Known about the structure:
The chain is about 50% helix and about 25% strand. It contains three helices and five strands; from the N terminus they run H-H-E-E-E-E-E-H. Strands 4-3-2-1-5 form a five-stranded antiparallel beta sheet. Strand 3 and strand 4 form a beta hairpin. It comes from Desulfovibrio piger. It is found in: Cell membrane.
Amino acid sequence: MFESVAFAMGTPQAGGAAPSGGDMLMQFVPLILMFAIFWFLLIRPQQKRAKAHKQMLAELKRGDHVMTSSGLIGRIMEISEEEVVIECGDAKLRMSRGAIGGLVGKSAEKAEVKAEEKK
Length: 119
């Protein structure tokens, strides 16, 4: 009974020798390929969006029409390094500069033209 189990297990590679360097490299190729796919499809585009958002926040100025990340649209009345006062209809809202989601209207078009000129 035990002889058949031992026979089914097979013999070690090349008389018990360790796998060669080429075999080990071939085991890591799928992992390297998966990392490359994740890099180009997920990580890199996210970094580009974050960089563009950071640049947009740095270039904000008084009078720009913006949309907050919560969807409110208004015009910047006051701006400091950390806070922004936005006029939304009759209300004035004070919020964090990071809460600005993007530019809207003519401000957005001007920003796109500037970005294209820089390229």
